[in-house]
Amino acid sequence: MKSNIRTVRKKEIIEGFYELCKREGLENVSIAKIGKQLGMPPSLIMHYFSNKRLLVLGLIDHILHQYQLIYKPILLKFEKESSLDPILLVDRLFSREWNLLFDDGVFFSCYAFIFRDTTIRNAYKKLHLKLRSTLKTILDKDKDLSQKDTDLLAEKIFVVIEGAYYYLSMIEEPKEYQRKLDIFKNQVLELIQMKQGVKHQEK
Description:
Blueprint lengths: L1 H23 L6 H8 L3 H7 L3 H17 L3 H7 L7 H8 L3 H5 L2 H8 L6 H24 L8 H19 L5 H18 L12
Helix pairs in contact: 1-2, 1-4, 2-3, 4-9, 9-10, 10-11
């Protein structure tokens, strides 16, 4: 029972921390502010997270949990079919839902810690390896793709995705964003040797 209460309380604190980071920026959030946001004494928060670094590590676990949801429609479809729908896969991997699942600004604020904190660097590495592992599991479910080196394929796909998201986050003009997005989608379709192209649609 105590374990369940602890899990629920930690989740509540991390979610409160995340909401404050979205609103005020990670660098401006303190344990005192989290306490005020949640109506908790700071001492209770420090009982679970004794410093901000541990809160960031908890936030990275939260990122992973949220990002895994991007795969859910694909995995559900496999319950009825044995082959991969490449368009569905690409649409999910390049969906703006990533940003709805977890704010990009908070993601990159946390990411900046990898350059000065080995534990946080390892946590981010674990996050990325898990996302690749889940993608490999999806690729392995397809009878044709399972004959390929799906480890390498998942790695190549994520190189495109991660580079694309970094670059696309700087583009504000909708038509230019869509044009670049279609290019990246087609790159992934080519990697899985599915020749269906994604046509640019004028908005």
